[in-house]
Amino acid sequence: MEFENKKDGNTAGHRKDVSGTEPGTTGQPHKRRVRYKGTHPRNFKEKYKELQPEKYADTIAKVVQKGSTPAGMHISICVNEILDFLQIQPGQKGLDATLGYGGHTQAMLKCLKGEGHIHALDIDPIESVKTKARLEQAGFGEEILTIHHMNFADIDQVAEEDGPFDFVLADLGVSSMQIDNPERGFSYKTEGPLDLRLNPEKGESAAKRLREIDQEELQGMLIENSDEPYAEEIAKAVMTTLKRGGKIETTQDLRRIIEETLSFLPEREFKESAKKSCQRTFQALRIDVNSEFEVLYQFLEKLPDVLAPGGRVAILTFHSGEDRLVKRSFKELKRAGIYSDAATDVIRPSAEECRLNPRARSTKMRWAVRSE
Ligand SMILES: C[S@@+](CC[C@H](N)C(=O)[O-])C[C@H]1O[C@@H](n2cnc3c(N)ncnc32)[C@H](O)[C@@H]1O
């Protein structure tokens, strides 16, 4: 399936513009652009410099040097380790299963030196339109890069069109642009709709999921997807709230319930434990609404058939559930002789990379080589 070329990133019909009015509505009073107030913009929409990295390179460099990710940008992780392993040569054909901001795609495209082709996939219709435009601007048009709006569970379809691939990369999970945009509902830190879908045009939001499942299922989800130690207490509190007619529609509705549930903890433990339980609960819901384990499983199953003999694959994971699936698949397929070699240990980003990009801290990289 080819990427649908939409005019801007605001593809969901119901989304509103910055001023809160429907786009294109006439007769609205003119609103001035929201500007930084002082040197520390307080919210996402005020970070207009960070949201235009091409235009404000100095601001971006300062934010990165301080160990933060500029809003509207994603810092690619383990780029050197990935390139060292993939050994990309001009003329090769590759696949980036998770385009995101396009940082890894661009680094791999550079290795092709104008010869060969990369197919890149993403299910996010909002960010991938922007990335496509950005990469075109950087000189990587359709002659060398094809972007597909597609789930990586369907990699066999791209391979049928133009495979097999000499190299494949998957950098799992969410991008910083997705996490940092409050409208997407990925972060417990900012107010926003409790959505958490990578593709908001499909499936059900996390708020809707919570209304549909029962306490037992929610408890199981919290344990299975993120090893939440207070799964029982949180599941009970969520279901009691909903049964009493309370609403859990926003990120802060859910955060408040988690914090109230953990209020029995001693004061010195409360802050850190509540933060971690919020992170784990949001992660568990995200994995659920995006069927992340199911699609990763399908991807891993199909992978050997899309790789050329001697083809190389690298996968970055961000939590133990993902890493377990990748580790097991590589190990079993190596034992079966389908992969000639596979990582026995994970590769981790350097301490310096983690200092500059704290979001890299949980990254594990695994790799495998398809038998000749
Ligand atoms: C960590 S980001 C990738 C960042 C990218 N490597 C870069 O350098 O900018 C993960 C991306 O994968 C996408 N994604 C997650 N699951 C996916 C799936 N099943 N199929 C396709 N894309 C997916 C997300 O929408 C997100 O944009």
C-alpha Rg, in Å?
A: 21 Å
Largest sheet: 7 strands, mixed
Distance between the termini: 29 Å
> How many individual helices?
14
Could you estimate the helical fraction of the residues in percent?
40-55%
Taking strands numbered 1, 2, ... along the chain, how are they ordered across the largest sheet? 3-2-1-4-5-7-6
Order of helices and strands: HHEHEHEHEHHHHHHHEHEHE
Classify the beta-strand content into a percent band.
5-15%
Q: How many strands appear in the DSSP assignment?
A: 7
In CATH, the homologous superfamily of the largest domain goes by the name: Vaccinia Virus protein VP39
Which cofactor or ligand species appear?
Answer: S-adenosylmethionine
Describe the overall structure:
41% of the residues lie in helices and 12% in strands. It starts with 56 loop residues before the first helix and ends with a strand. The chain folds into 3 domains: 34-73, no CATH class; 79-176 and 294-370, Rossmann fold (3-Layer(aba) Sandwich); 200-289, Orthogonal Bundle (DNA polymerase, domain 1), CATH 1.10.150. By secondary structure, the protein is of the alpha/beta class. It binds S-adenosylmethionine. S-adenosylmethionine is lined by residues 74, 76, 98, 100-104, 121-124, 127, 151-153, 171, 173-175, 198, 295. It catalyses: cytidine(1402) in 16S rRNA + S-adenosyl-L-methionine = N(4)-methylcytidine(1402) in 16S rRNA + S-adenosyl-L-homocysteine + H(+). Residues 29-41 have a biased composition (Basic residues).
